[in-house]
Amino acid sequence: MDPPPNPNPNPTDAEPQAEAGARLAALSLRGGRDLPPDFEIHEHHLDDDDDDDEGYLTAASRGGSSTCAWKGLRDDDRDGDDVSPPSPSSSGYAGERGSSLDDDPDPEPAQDWPRDKKHLDEDDASSSWRKRKKHFFILSNSGKPIYSRYGDEHKLAGFSATLQAIISFVENSGDHIKFVRSGKHQIVFLVKGPIYLVCISCTEESYEGLRGQLELMYGQLLLILTKSVNRCFEKNPKFDMAPLLGGTDAVFLSLIHAFSWNPATFLHAYTCLPLAQSTRQAASAVLQDIADSGVLFALLMCEHKVISLVGAQKATLHPDDILLLANFILSSESFRTSESFSPICLPRYNPMAFLYAYVHFFDEHTYVTLLTTRSDAFYDLKDSRTRIQNVLLKSNVLTEVQRSLHESALHVEDLPIDPSSQSASQPQSSRDMSSQSLSSEMAIGGPAGLWHFIYKSVYLDQYVSSEFPSSISNRKQQKRLYKAYQKFYASMHDKATGPHKTQFRRDEDYVLFCWITQDFELYAAFNPLADKSQAIKMCNRVCQWVRDLENEIFVYGGSALSWQYHHCWEGE
Amino acid sequence: MGLSAAAAGDGTQLCVFDLRRGQQEGQELDKILFFHPADCPILLQLSVIGLCEGIVTFTRIFSPEEDCEVIESEKRSHVFYQAEPDIWMVLVVEKTKDNESNWRCGALQGILKEAHSLFTMFHGPIRTLLDRQPSAELARGHLRTFLTDYLSDFHVGKKIQFPTYRDSLKERGTIQMLTVPREVALEVQSLTTVLGSCLGNVTCQSLILFEDLLVSTTLPPDDTLNLYTYAVLRLTPRALSSNASSWSYLRKGTSVSAGPTSSSSNGTTAGERYHSRSRDTSPDGQNQMHHNFRPLLREKLSKGKDGFVAADFAATEVRGAVPLTPIIWFQQAEERMYLCIYQHKSLTILLLIPASSLINGEEGIAHVKKQMLENASQKIVTVEQKLTRGWGGENAYHVSGYRYLLVDPDRRVSRASPPGKVTTLAKDSLLALNRLRQEVDLEKSRYRRSDPSHDKDFEVCIRTKNNAWVIAKITRGRELYMALEKGGETLLYASTAVEKFSNRYCEGAFSTD
Q1: Residues 6+ apart with CB under 8 A from A352
Q2: What is the value of pTM for the model shown?
Q3: What is the domain extent for residue B381?
Q4: Cβ contact (<8 Å) for B68 and A176?
Q5: Per the CB < 8 Å rule, is A504 touching B491?
Q6: Which of A107, B155, B346, B408 has the fewest Cβ atoms within 10 Å of its own Cβ atom?
Q7: Which residues of chain A are within 8 Å of residue B72 when distances are taken between CB atoms?
Q8: How many domains does chain A have?
């Protein structure tokens, strides 16, 4: 069992020294406390593009600052008991959260939210804590708190013990508790060996949706620690796991945040950055070269979107692993500030073992991740990265990525009136022409009251979604639509009766339409007054539109990536 | 200590417990007011109630204003209903692997609500019984006989069978009405007036049923619902004949010799055992006679030669009252009334005489009955004839091509495809419909919480994997559920079908325009 990757970005630690590694290992991941002050000011980094241009150039010269940290840790099957628990002030990266983490509406909006997300002063006796809309807890089967979204885990020991008592009571009878419902509150339980995960929510999400989120929380935990952490519990049932996750608060917070904006969390598919086919091919070609030289997976990503990804022969990467990996990288500030070499586990690929991830940000948003099984591959991968970088620069890929990031999104207003006549290679250029909606009274959004859609290609395990129109401009509205989709998805994919073929749903907020075939799943949201037959026409048109654009919005078989679901950690 | 060591049988448990009792350590047993099966080991009973109480307390941390509704685990569901403040009823049902146990939480909760409403109608609120006799002997006694008799309706062989997905086109807790043409409606109205004046200066209330369908009522909706439910369970011609047949069936069919109710999984004997135990703990067992009042006991009810249904109840609620006519309590009307049941062919008349106005008990009732026969006989015969003439039989409300359920929750009225027609639906369609109803239940309670005064419209149309359409539509508070198996492929086909149905059978209530 290994500790989590260390985010220590301090350039002075650049020399890969085994001694330093051991020292850092002992620190486990204490997070923000170890960061130099200049890394804690990240409030505006997302808005400050210029900074990062320099960032990737200098980062290269910092080379391997984290390499050493992990060398010594990998096979070091420590108990972890000797790792001192983080002090309350070391509660992860709370201080360096970007302003993008605007999460759940709180009972008292604004206030110090979202900066002090953890609300360490709270515990189960605080009324503010009780009123939080969505709690996540991770605890051990002996009732020891491991993680809580809100409040200080240590103060929640009693509460944690209660949760443990409930779960164990039912477990002892040879049964497994799934959920409890009480008015608008739902308590969802997930038992994974010695680790219990609980969500207490009044967000009206479906049981299936919340359970899926707990599965991802567990996956994130495995990504950091691997499943071999179970061995610690075998040795010592009272094992305190919380210190091993010290400093990873930001990773979990970011994942929880993703539950309310990232469709990948329930679609089990990933999304790509739209790019001209030739540009993507250039990127794929160089990644493929690298993959052939002993890298297991090579991913080029822009934020959460995949630009290109290739895998060694027969190796497959599950979309959930991509999601968890991207979340881990994007929420750990250190990856952005220096090139890193970290042990990580891909829970769907192999929950028992660590891989080694070489991560390097080319600019603020774009980064390459090279995964290998070799713990000594840092310098090889560093060289590979240089090669990749050269190709990307030469073929203008990074510029194109920047352009796409700002321009290439799908807008429902651009939905072509006559799909066959549109080459649609540049959707934004046709926006003005095609925005004459079929029904002018629903001028906001796309034609016939179309507000938004998500299209998932079943074969590719990829999805594409449109931008939100002005009618769904604020976060709250977007989140509400997102939750409606989530519910809709659960309804279509019901275990006992699904998947259904089509569904039409009209409530006060939306008309939702879903269409599932062997090839694709389409989820579309319309104005609640939308006409049914017009809506159906629009859905057909969206599908045609997506097909017309597929070479740009999807990544096609860059390599022999036959996407298959692994169920490594489902069949416990 | 866990739950799975359930007593042999189907694993179904039903318990009633009072959280104001037994709060001292060692006295937990005092919380339990009823437990089925009665032969379940005490430790297991305590364990079930311990979990339920624990969860009730735990959920109140987050939602102090709202009741815990369900604990869902892999093998069972615990369905909660807080019947009265701090008095909880919990139904535990075990799941089978074949999807057959796919039920709807709301439907199971409906059973608990119904049981409690009926209990209250005959015995008054549980809390009142507990206040009257703090040892709880009285409450336990009544609950034991009443719920055991009530559960006997769900027995299929030796097992208890609660509604599953196959019943997703039924709505417990609603009344099925007979649609009556205008001229017959006038006759019924006139009959109601005559019935109302049977006592002279004080107005009597009445319910008139044709077969199992309600024709008219003078009671408020909740009271009507309770009495109607009771009538359909035990008093209508169909119910009376099944009283007889179930009796003979049991006589012939089972080797249990302890009499009819022993079908209710050793109901009487186990009940007695429980009872004697509770008497041990509370020696003050005075009101023994009341325990014999069993309005749900089938074989106590039979139709006499005079047309009145005689109830051989041993005693009534009020001491000294006549044995043959039960007094029931109407919560909404806030009144106690004697219940007289008269039957003419398919017509059942429930005449309710205010208890306060009838001083001379049995004699007074005999007088009212006489008055009723004298004044109303002819009208009863006429109404029965006219209703029979216009009656379309058990498939009267079948609409070809549709399998539907219409619910008007405000009026507590529903109408559905005949059960015989619903069984023709494929399992997949019924499962999908059941699942859809669960979703709609959740949406409805969400709407109620967000703005109780405002009806929210809602529509779902699903094309299932077996190519059926399952549909739910809520418009101005009225609900329509539907399954269409032989239909077109397009959504527009399904919409048109709903539109046609709505225009033709629901006065356009669910139409888009």
Answers
A1: A226, A227, A228, A345
A2: 0.82
A3: 182-259+295-390
A4: no
A5: yes
A6: A107
A7: 177-181, 207
A8: 3
